[in-house]
Amino acid sequence: MRFCRAAIPALILAFWFAVRAQSQATPRSASERFLIDHNRIFVELRFVRPDGSIRKALAFMDSGDPSFEFTASLAKELGLDKNNPIRARFGGMNLDVDPKIVASADEGKSMFAGMVVEANLPSTVLDKYDVTLDYGNRILTLASPASLKHEGVRILCKVNSKTGFISVQAEIDGESYALAIDAGSAYTWIDQSVAAKWITAHPQWVHGTGAVGDANMNGALPELTGTILRLPVVHVGLSY
Predict the structure, then answer these.
(1) What is the pLDDT of residues 164-186, one digit of tens each?
(2) Which fold has domain 17-143?
């Protein structure tokens, strides 16, 4: 299956989402400023070393990945193994992390070129909290379930109970499509056959071959041969 990327500003710009989780005895919340680089979100996490000291690291917020990943150097410094599970904090709040979601470490010193990014903040951690992404003020808030007052239009969504992935229904060119809400993706992935159908029906829509700019996330296939396409209008979800 081949894919293309479509620039959908409505999904890249401000949105909030609340995720399901089991109730917690003590309400907890924390807010931190985040960095946006190439349409991706980066936040500072604080990890606890075996000796109890704090190790700060820039993390990639990735609501499209269930695994908690680290660079090899950070994993070694934290002494991550079965006998020493991950201890992570966001702001002043201890994160609830299932040891089973910790993945093998990335061999490089950073997960991204041009930045020192040593970990990610995966969907399986976000799934345990109410999550608010305030793009305008660059603030990420995590809080105990059902504790935040959200503003804006509420959109029906589906949440995968195992991965924490979120999907919504979107109407594009008169048809409905299921789209994932992935704050970790710089562009939106669309099946190539669907994009070809749109281009055939609307050759005037701006499009080309091969990812450029922010769409060139990995510099490899299928980005080199995929279609890059700008969609003029996307209607997201059903409000309630």
Answers:
(1) 999 999 999 999 999 999 988 88
(2) Cathepsin D, subunit A; domain 1 (2.40.70)
